[in-house]
Amino acid sequence: MKEVVIMPAKLLEGKSVALKIKENIKAEAETLKAKHGFGPKLVSVQAGDNAASEVYLKCQEKNAKELGLEYALKKLDANIKQDEFIKAIDSLNKDKTVHGIIVQMPLPQHIDAHLISRYIAPLKDIEAVHPENMGEIVFGTAKILPCTAAACMELLNSVPSLELYGKEVVIVGHSEIVGKPLALLLLNKFATVTICHIATSQRGTLPEFVKKAEILIIAVGKAGLIRGDWIKSGAIVIDVGINRVEGKIVGDVEFDKAAEKASYITPVPGGVGPLTVAILMRNAVEAFKQQIVKN
Ligand code: NDP
């Protein structure tokens, strides 16, 4: 007999939210072009080849074209010296026709990613990796937000009448691009935020934190890390993780079992992913506007 899957959770799909954001970007890009005679241009910088980055690069180019933004890929040699890399960034900083810079990760091992991020002009830093842009998040004044963290916030905004004030939020994963900035964005909305990481797992206390979460956001990259029976009844679950298991893309959460207990859950793929690149494009338009005002 076929197993019947009980799934009370509603799907939090990124596509529909991304579509609305993209419609706005397209309209705004057209208006800006009509007003200034030119529009936003973003440049991705890639050192060497990396199979994992190729998908993201193609996605950036496709989205930029669709939305009427100019896009270019600047390829650097995998063996480029660090000071040459910095010079390449600096020439993009000085180029008035370029409004957004993306440094494609991972970088070759001999290049210090933290150091490189300090050389991107903050106004052109459309992934918000420069310490100045990270600092703006602490102040609650950031106009350009880290894309994946902002994507999670957009998904939460799409939940009807969700009030973040005082909510118990648990984030699993403390990376600089997802967990840490997201914790601050949620804190700025007065959520009660707990961040779990490798040490939480090693101490064996991850299940007890997850079980308390009214909103659970996981960004680790380990399939099946979060068991379905840990999910609090009625919780909102956002799964950022991307893992390839037996040729299929899955998240970090045991989806079917989690969906039996959650009120909302993101599918993987199709949850956070489609929104991340939409936010990148939105950041490019925002960066353009800020630079036009300054010049
Ligand atoms: P990182 O590897 O930078 O961070 C992973 C985090 O998980 C680290 O904080 C790490 O802690 C923590 N961690 C590792 N193992 C455990 C464990 N057993 N229990 C608890 N925490 C653990 O990854 P990213 O933040 O860049 O990405 C996370 C996932 O999200 C990946 O699967 C990635 O592919 C996906 N992703 C998806 C995006 C999208 O658009 N959908 C965009 C960006 C990422 P520590 O460092 O201390 O070991």
Can you describe this structure?
With 295 residues, the protein is α/β, with parallel strands linked by helices. It has two domains: 94 residues, 3-Layer(aba) Sandwich (Rossmann fold), CATH 3.40.50.10860; 129 residues, NAD(P)-binding Rossmann-like Domain (Rossmann fold), CATH 3.40.50.720. Helices cover 44% and strands 16% of the residues. It has eleven helices and eleven strands. It has a six-stranded parallel beta sheet, with helices on both faces. The protein has a three-stranded parallel beta sheet with strand order 3-2-4, sandwiched between helices. A hairpin with a 2-residue loop joins strand 9 and strand 10. The model has no long low-confidence stretch (mean pLDDT 96). It binds NADPH dihydro-nicotinamide-adenine-dinucleotide phosphate. The site of NADPH dihydro-nicotinamide-adenine-dinucleotide phosphate has 25 residues, from helix 8 and helix 11.
Keywords:
single chain; 295 residues; alpha/beta; Rossmann fold; six-stranded parallel β-sheet; three-stranded parallel β-sheet; 11 helices; 11 strands; globular; binds NADPH dihydro-nicotinamide-adenine-dinucleotide phosphate
So, CATH architecture of the largest domain? 3-Layer(aba) Sandwich
Specify the helix fraction band.
40-55%
CATH homologous group name of the largest domain? NAD(P)-binding Rossmann-like Domain
Q: Please tell me how large the radius of gyration is.
A: 20 Å
Total of helices: 11
Q: How many runs of DSSP E, i.e. beta strands? A: 11
CATH topology (fold) name of the largest domain: Rossmann fold
Strand order of the largest sheet: 1-11-8-7-5-6
Q: Would you list the SSEs in sequence order as H and E?
A: EHEHEHEHHHEHEHHEEEEHEH
User: How many separate domains make up the residues?
Assistant: 2
